[in-house]
Amino acid sequence: MAVAAVPAGGIAGHIHPEPQGFVRRYVFSLDHKIIGIQYIITAFVFMVLAGLLAEVIRTQLLNANGGFVAPDTYNEVYSVHGSAMVWLVIIPVLTGGFGNLVFPLQIGARDVAFPWLNMLSFWIFPVAGLMLFSSFLMGAPTAGWMEYPPVSLQGAAGTSMWAAAIFLVGVSSTMTGINFVVTILKMRAPGMTFTRMPLFVWGQFATAPLLMIATTALAAALAALFIERQFGVPFFDPTKGGSPVMWQHMFWFYSHPAVYIMILPAFGIISEVLPTFSRKPIFGYKLIAFSSMAIALAGFMVWAHHMFTSGLAPFLQIPFMIITFVIGVPTGIKIFSWTATLWRGKIHYTTAMLFAIGFVGLFTLGGITGIFLAAIPFDLHVHGTYFIVGHIHYVLVGGSLMGVFAGMYYWFPKMSGRLLNETLGKLHFWLFFIGFNGTFIPMHWLGMLGMPREVATYDPQFTFWNRFESFSSYLMTFAILIFFVNVLWSIRNGKRSGPNPWGARTLEWQIPSPPNYYNFKHIPTIYGLPYDFSQPLPYKGLEEELTDSPPPVAAGAH
Amino acid sequence: MSVAAIGADGHDGVDQLYVETRELRLQGFLLFLVSDCVLFSSFIFAYLYLRNSGQGWPPPGIQRLDVGFAAWNSVVLFGSGATMHYALENFKHGNFIRYMWFLLATIVLGAGFLGGQAYEYNHLIFGEHVTWWGSGIFGASFFTLTGMHGMHVFFGVCYLTVLVLQSAAGVYTKGKYFGITAGTLYWHFVDVIWVVLFSIFYLI
Q1: Which tens digit of pLDDT belongs to each residue from A92-101?
Q2: For a surface tag, which of A120, A183, A241, B56 has the fewest beta carbons within 10 Å of its beta carbon?
Q3: What is the DSSP string of A267-308?
Q4: From the candidates A105, A235, A553, which should be mutated to test the interface with B, based on the most B CB atoms within 10 A?
Q5: ipTM exceeding 0.95?
Q6: CB contact under 8 A, A231 and B43
Q7: B-contacting residues in A 480-519 (Cβ below 8 Å)
């Protein structure tokens, strides 16, 4: 009995016809692909705003005595820049954005498990983002993206708005996490066993529990901060018996897993792009998949390595240092596997591939400085300096954001049916790559020389490298401008891609671009891993996908 | 070749669009409870952390909490857990009338617990002048955690009331009663949280 023989109308009485009105189709849509695109667009809008804040920071630092904005404004600017980039850009675009857009297609599902919840998650997110930026109107938070008390307790009214906004983003993330876990556990197509799932799905599967569990811990910390600020209920104020270090524990118990929320989906993107453009099976499929899970698990046990200078007992510091070193092992396994995938591959230097290779290099640098920072003596030396700023930007920009760009060039045809322009794309990559390194490499030695972060002025001896960084950051901004021009131009004028412009083998490329709202006419059956480029495709039941046969909507369905 | 023969891992829901089956909802709801549990755990961690960073507990000037009354109140809440369990069992076995009685008993006991908590708060606030914001970390942790739990009980009572009305209107049938399962799981969850809160506030 062949699975593909289930008639189109079989269970398909459950498939509702596509909604026709603009609002139900594109605004309050239940379709995971539309919601994914909504996430991506919204996150890019917030990226422009937060990126402008970054340029305010760099312009301020052109001169040793600042002068571009007032020091208090500078504090507001870097606090909102960090918060927005983490919670409104990187996390939403990688989970809600690419996660929604791609992984249900890759597991052969018609949608996520809870489409209505998915829509709700999305619509909370722009509201929360506007709340965060509106904090400028009432005095934005000034204690950095970490908002350590007691400074955050004394901050302007916007700090409470900040806490409320991040709380809401957290609610949205938690719902997304629940939705994704259930979808991956329950909605896989027949034959899609765990060890046949594409690695992007594994990335999301490792991330979703973090979204679901860690984010709630942050919600508790934010609620406590909000309550303390608004009602004077003491949690963190040491003069009333509270403990500021407790905030650090609660915050980092979330925010350390959060850095894996921001990188594991990007690992997934890279693990799709590299084999496709090397025309080679991914090296060490299971190692990459399981190391994602290992990183997710160990990520809960290392939060206090952010607190080595906070007066933690020494017998606690050593285990946190050791476990942090241990996290380098699964990460190293991934780096080696990706490198081995490239080895003797037939490499196609498309823009997506350039970003993926750039990711491997830059993320490795960021990861190595992370290992430096795990060592307590080194961390004591550079804590609160620009070394930290350099490190986090290497993993979040050189890692996550490069992954986002690789994903954009790779899946843009799936979203729109058109290719992004490759010439503009390569210009984007090279300018971004040069600008990025020029901006963030000098931060490492400035930090080791003792230049403190989050301060509006600096010692004049650092002027040269700060100017160098600022001008490099303008180059990076220009590169991102090229990217936006490319996207806007290609939506209308890009070359038509056809269903599978890259010759990729995962399921989403076997159906039309953009896919129909019901994704698959027949749910396919999966017989093997998607990465064996020498073998025929391991799918059955996809024969009608690219033909004009009618959609699987039962006549007279609701 | 049948799906089973290829080591299928497929599930019933895959061919559907915009239909949330009972299985999906159950798993999603359990995960919601997990994340809710983390929320409580974080505040419990905060309480224990603060408690151990000060000089002794309860802090100077504050009486120990009254275990006796709270213990009776806990019995009321645990009793409601039992009645909720029997409500679900009776529904599954088709005893609709007994299901309704057990459900109503759960609501009454839940409301009784809330009444007891209101009495205790009243005594603390107006009798001993212990307030949420004015009694240092004791007031902060006690009222935040028990208040959060009380809110959960309150929402539970509201939800069970809706269940009564829905059941009377015939919304739930023998094959389709996820709303009742969810209510039961939620109610047991709230009970379990109370076991922990009672232990850490009143016993230790």
Answers
A1: 999 999 999 9
A2: B56
A3: HHHHHHHHHHHHTSPPTTHHHHHHHHHHHHHHGGG-GGGG-T
A4: A235
A5: no
A6: no
A7: 518
